[in-house]
């Protein structure tokens, strides 16, 4: 492909991107395909000689789109949202263009320095503790990970190294494998599965703690577990707390947990993957209280802050804890001036060596929306969620589950789990909207995003149809408003947004 061909193809693809967003509502929200569908559409060998762009371009609609779940579709209510915006897409084009792999400062100084700067910007925009600033005296700082799962794993592995070293100092000659059996980590029943996974990968003992009636982990429960484990001769070393759980957007009591962690000298990691974006609005910042006790904190701008996947923002109080866990220094990665310590070498802060220029996405989004623009979107989404909550409360067949705090509305039809399972199935089979179930304690739930009149109408329709099947209905429906359908307000092109915004 030469320059002219690239220009023509690029224009054609940008036009396609715009049309995709403009007309997304005309597509079926979830694909109607069976596993293996694509084998029938593509040859089983790569072409030996080059094909023409036009042939490939045609295959986007023929081969790819039939199997795409349209996460940005206004009627995709499942999971937490996934963010997207034109500024972020543009940033990714630029990132792909320079194709740097900024594993060290020298490997692409701009890649490292922009990341340091935008992560500091975010600390200030979200009123995070100053210890997370790159300029803090205690080696604090932020790094962009690919996902919340990676951030949790990095925190767990770093805490593990730190505490293993402590055990080894106290017990000279003890083998790593033996010391490892002494460590114990904590999570709650509502923690994301990625936390349990991180503990499994780290090969540490872990305990899954109970929560209170609001699905929140509390300090006294943690303290009791720690006391028990210390009495058994174990070394508690980390707790992963959650702000905005996946099942019901519950908030652990980080203030209480943080105080226990400080007294007991164990690492506190906070996973705020979804809810974190809301802290850019000062009125939601109190939900983050306790973060001042955290050794590491993480949220996903790619969920609710207009930044396209992948961008998971992580801060640590002391980056030396990470560096000590991940530092290996082969000769070919050494460069002059590297030990001046002015700028980090981010390869020591995460698991892969190479890294994309992801800070461009944050920089474009922060500049082209402004903090105010991002706040407006979060506030609008939460307002819509409360409007939907009102509809539900006004309907005697439904009840709200838990509290509507951010853009997630958990609601249920009064009655049994079974009929609610039928309702979810029916809604999804219908194909016009998509929701996923969840379970809080023993209650079957449904997770969804972006409530609208349309959602309510569709649910009503499904209820009327379901009544023929059974009289009792009781599903928890989880509805969260997502920023996605605003696709880059004020750059919005999605006609449904207008409908949504006017609700
Ligand atoms: C979405 C989510 C995760 C997983 O995020 P990834 O970036 O996909 O790893 C973890 N924790 C919570 C609370 C989440 O909402």
UniProtKB/TrEMBL annotation:
<keyword id="KW-0812">Transmembrane</keyword>
<protein>
    <recommendedName>
        <fullName>Aromatic-L-amino-acid decarboxylase</fullName>
        <ecNumber>4.1.1.28</ecNumber>
    </recommendedName>
</protein>
<dbReference type="GO" id="GO:0042427">
    <property type="term" value="P:serotonin biosynthetic process"/>
</dbReference>
<feature type="transmembrane region" description="Helical">
    <location>
        <begin position="453"/>
        <end position="479"/>
    </location>
</feature>
<dbReference type="GO" id="GO:0005737">
    <property type="term" value="C:cytoplasm"/>
</dbReference>
<comment type="similarity">
    <text>Belongs to the group II decarboxylase family.</text>
</comment>
<dbReference type="InterPro" id="IPR010977">
    <property type="entry name" value="Aromatic_deC"/>
</dbReference>
<dbReference type="InterPro" id="IPR021115">
    <property type="entry name" value="Pyridoxal-P_BS"/>
</dbReference>
<dbReference type="GO" id="GO:0042423">
    <property type="term" value="P:catecholamine biosynthetic process"/>
</dbReference>
<keyword id="KW-0456">Lyase</keyword>
<dbReference type="GO" id="GO:0004058">
    <property type="term" value="F:aromatic-L-amino-acid decarboxylase activity"/>
</dbReference>
<feature type="modified residue" description="N6-(pyridoxal phosphate)lysine">
    <location>
        <position position="303"/>
    </location>
</feature>
<dbReference type="InterPro" id="IPR002129">
    <property type="entry name" value="PyrdxlP-dep_de-COase"/>
</dbReference>
<dbReference type="Pfam" id="PF00282">
    <property type="entry name" value="Pyridoxal_deC"/>
</dbReference>
<keyword id="KW-1133">Transmembrane helix</keyword>
<dbReference type="GO" id="GO:0006520">
    <property type="term" value="P:amino acid metabolic process"/>
</dbReference>
<dbReference type="GO" id="GO:0030170">
    <property type="term" value="F:pyridoxal phosphate binding"/>
</dbReference>
<dbReference type="InterPro" id="IPR015422">
    <property type="entry name" value="PyrdxlP-dep_Trfase_small"/>
</dbReference>
<comment type="subunit">
    <text>Homodimer.</text>
</comment>
<keyword id="KW-0127">Catecholamine biosynthesis</keyword>
<keyword id="KW-0210">Decarboxylase</keyword>
<dbReference type="GO" id="GO:0019752">
    <property type="term" value="P:carboxylic acid metabolic process"/>
</dbReference>
<keyword id="KW-0472">Membrane</keyword>
<keyword id="KW-0663">Pyridoxal phosphate</keyword>
<dbReference type="InterPro" id="IPR015421">
    <property type="entry name" value="PyrdxlP-dep_Trfase_major"/>
</dbReference>
<dbReference type="InterPro" id="IPR015424">
    <property type="entry name" value="PyrdxlP-dep_Trfase"/>
</dbReference>
